[in-house]
Amino acid sequence: MTATTGRPSRRGRPGHDRADVIRVGVQLFNEQGYDATSVADLTARLGVTKSALYHHVDSKEQILQIALNEALGGLEDALQAALGHPTADARLTAIVDGAVRVLTERLPQVTLLLRLRGNSDIELAALERRRRFDHTVTGLVREAQAEGLVRADLDAGVATRLIFGMINSVVEWYRPDGPVDPELLGAEIRTVALDGLRPRA
Amino acid sequence: MTATTGRPSRRGRPGHDRADVIRVGVQLFNEQGYDATSVADLTARLGVTKSALYHHVDSKEQILQIALNEALGGLEDALQAALGHPTADARLTAIVDGAVRVLTERLPQVTLLLRLRGNSDIELAALERRRRFDHTVTGLVREAQAEGLVRADLDAGVATRLIFGMINSVVEWYRPDGPVDPELLGAEIRTVALDGLRPRA
After folding, report:
1. What is the ipTM of this complex?
2. Is it the case that residue B130 has pLDDT exceeding 70?
3. Which of A148, B74, B87, B198 is most enclosed, with most CB atoms within 10 A?
4. DSSP string of chain A, one letter each residue
5. Where is the DNA-binding region (chains A, B) (predicted)?
């Protein structure tokens, strides 16, 4: 975009842009674990030099930070959208569907988020954002209990964890090129969470 | 126990037996990731020399193998016990309750199992054992569908994954010294999985 030099706006070697570096970084973190992945692993997988890598990102930590922002930002946006619905029922439905959509659309980034151990400030800050998200969702569940939409004999926190246990398990087996339709999956998870596996009489 | 020498039968330094080495090893693997944990990390945490560590175990891999056997052995035993029940309903109930019991009783080992990435032969073999377990449980779900106990419009494999998504999420938040009773937790997960969160009319 800089007409004076004619250089492309993306930095670094041709064939790799910043998005590639982040995508490959997240892939490696998910394969080996973040702590076990070195900058040398990143350059080897990308087939670039260290200095080419540093054209795109400042550090391994920055790749982690960007990926976690994509995961958490998606979940937070879905929650904001859900909170805009007029009834507790619609809000609960919207957050389940929205979270499943974010998981299937940003699978590698959410996988990374769910496997965090909290071994650095970036990880601890991400876990804290995730806790705030869970806390707000627990509020939605509690509200649904107060309106008689969800059984009141369950602890709202445990219920939230069980719903998100189902949702989050999707990262373990869902594949974008697999046979399961992500829209249907959202509806199935919602049905199982709300109505259970047994046929209703 | 050997009267001739007076040495205790457990090997290595006093204050650490083999069970301690395995317990601390699993703890470190869960904190840092298996790949990122070195033998030096193990000896530092235990406060023993490398040679003292090798009194107890042959290798880092052996600690992993023993822990995965405890997790998978527990789940397989629970499945065998469940298969002995006379009805599909009782079999499904028994495997959900049994799996929750194994998770809460062998939390660190199951946590390790669930975070495996398949980066070594030991990990691949454990993942294959886990797949066989899942396959047999999917058969139980399919059987329950055939008897009208579980909705037939859900794919049995997806239903099994969602149930175990709930069960396995327990490793993320259950703490043995926390307020949640493990027996009640099994019943709650079973209730949510089978009857859902909505009150039945």
Report:
1. 0.81
2. yes
3. B74
4. --TTT---SS-SSTT--HHHHHHHHHHHHHHH-TTT--HHHHHHHHT--HHHHHHH-S-HHHHHHHHHHHHHHHHHHHHHHHHTSSSHHHHHHHHHHHHHHHHHHTHHHHHHHHT----SHHHHHHHHHHHHHHHHHHHHHHHHHHTTSS-TTS-HHHHHHHHHHHHHHHHHH--TTSS--HHHHHHHHHHHHHH-SSPP-
5. 38-57
